Amino acid sequence: METSIVGVGVGITDRFRSVVEEKIARIQTLAARAQRLDVKVTHRVYRNGRVPDETVELTLVGKGPVVRAEATDGDKFVALDLAIDKMCEQLRRAKEKRVDGRHHPRGAHFEKGSGALEGIDVRPASADVLHAVATGSVPIQNDEEETYSPVVIRTKNFEAEWMTVEEAVDRMELVGHDFFLFVDARTDHPSVVYRRKGWDYGVISLTTQASPSEALAS
User: Fold this and answer.
1) Predicted pLDDT of residue 76
2) Which of 56, 162, 198, 201 is the most buried (most CB within 10 A)?
């Protein structure tokens, strides 16, 4: 397997190269058909006083999907170990999934011994049903009677509630939702409060304007 090692903001020493060649033996065991492993080491320095760190990115290219893994640590050798552990775990899970798929194939398959379809929840139609369909004695649904749509839209109507943004946040937390619809008591505008990352929240409001019919009439 070909190996490429590059550094961004950091030099790649011979010792690091030798460690990489030693460690990737685990990857080769799990991915014998891999053709190339790209190793990228990035050194980052922060202006806010945070301790600099090293990020090791691994990209495995071969016959099949590309596999990627990365890890960050203050020591690039530790980051390398963590990234290799992640990639090996990904490869191990993929291998187990392939083996399980061969032993327990998904989807429908025909059992020669019993003549039955396995792996799918269907039952073959009886001879009577097939005869009824062939002779036209089975009523056919008229498409004009009911229009089929793959999109199902469910609607709910609620009474409008006037409250402050703070009260809306409290109500949202009580019901355990990610958003809450209300009418802002300060502006009388329909609004939605929603949860962002951590304990941050956002508010979206609609400004009230004249309806299109009222605008044309004026």
Assistant:
1) 92
2) 56
Q: What are phi and psi of 184, to 5 degrees?
A: -65, 120
- Residue corresponding to tokens 């053709």: 35
- Rank 76-80, 199-203, 204-208 by mean pLDDT and report only the highest: 76-80
Contact in structure between 189 and 173 (CB atoms under 8 Å): no
What are 63's two structure tokens?
A: 């016959």
Most confident stretch, 149-158, 183-192, 205-214: 183-192
Name the phi and psi angles at 34, rounded to 5.
-65, 145
- The maximal CA–CA distance of the chain, rounded, in angstroms, is 83
Per-residue pLDDT band for 31 (boundaries 50, 70, 90) equals confident
Given a cut of 90, whether residue 38 has pLDDT beyond it is yes
Residue type, 180: F
Q: Is the pTM of this model over 0.90?
A: no
C-alpha distances in Å from residue 45, one per residue of 54, 79, 85, 114, 189: 9, 16, 25, 67, 46
Residue with the larger pLDDT of the pair 83 and 173: 83
Asked if 3 and 24 touch (Cβ cutoff 8 Å), the reply is yes
Separation between Cα atoms, residue 85 and residue 82, nearest integer Å: 5
Distance between CA atoms of 129 and 117, rounded to whole angstroms? 19
Sheet of 53-62, strands arranged across: 2-8, 34-44, 53-62, 67-73
Burial of 150 (0-12, 13-18, 19+ CB in 10 A): exposed
CA distance 28 to 24: 6
Q: Is 42 helix (H, G, I), strand (E, B) or coil?
A: strand
